């Protein structure tokens, strides 16, 4: 699923009360995506985002991030408020990749929380692997710890393991062979 699929409100939508989504502005009776260049000239606070198109973290204004996310032309994923500093690009890549299979996409501040996260305030926090529901949806075979023991985990557990920075290596999609 691409970012374009995730933002169906890119097309104009009617509004009667000026209740546009973040990254949108009201034009007449419709909400349309803001232009990062034309509408974001005033300074707003910085955010750090992962740009999948260049495979790197970038600092940009909140306004530009929301406008570009609304337009859906860039592969942007929120990392944190403020400038980018000591970003774990491996986790940003893994989170972006895993998010396409997530059954949960809960809006949380400038971010969206996925199966392995919960929204607290306006921030996505990682679940611990034991907090994930046990199910057989979307299974993966991984090696864990220094012993390299193979085990089968679901998407939530894999995301929680990666998010918690526990040592693991993805072997393949599907359950481990006995």
From TrEMBL:
A Pfam family the protein falls into: Kazal_C6
Span of domain Factor I / membrane attack complex: 16-86, 108-178
Keywords attached to this entry: Disulfide bond, Glycoprotein, Repeat
Protein name, per record: Factor I / membrane attack complex domain-containing protein
Species per Swiss-Prot/TrEMBL record: Ranitomeya imitator (mimic poison frog)
């Amino acid at each position: 699923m691409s970012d374009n699929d995730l933002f169906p409100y890119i097309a104009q939508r009617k509004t009667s009360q000026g209740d546009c989504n973040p990254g949108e502005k009201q034009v007449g009776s419709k909400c349309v995506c803001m232009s990062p260049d034309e509408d974001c000239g005033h300074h707003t606070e910085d955010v750090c985002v992962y740009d999948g198109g260049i495979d790197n973290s970038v600092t940009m204004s909140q306004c530009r991030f929301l406008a570009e996310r609304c337009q859906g032309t860039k592969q942007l994923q929120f990392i944190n408020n403020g400038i980018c500093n000591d970003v774990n690009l491996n986790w940003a890549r893994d989170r972006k990749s895993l998010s396409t299979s997530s059954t949960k996409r809960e809006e949380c501040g400038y971010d969206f929380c996925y199966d392995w996260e919960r929204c607290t305030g306006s921030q996505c926090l990682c679940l611990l692997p034991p907090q994930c529901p046990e199910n057989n949806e979307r299974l993966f075979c991984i090696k864990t710890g220094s012993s390299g023991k193979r085990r089968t985990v679901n998407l939530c557990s894999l995301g929680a393991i990666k998010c918690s920075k526990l040592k693991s290596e993805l072997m393949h999609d599907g359950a481990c062979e006995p």
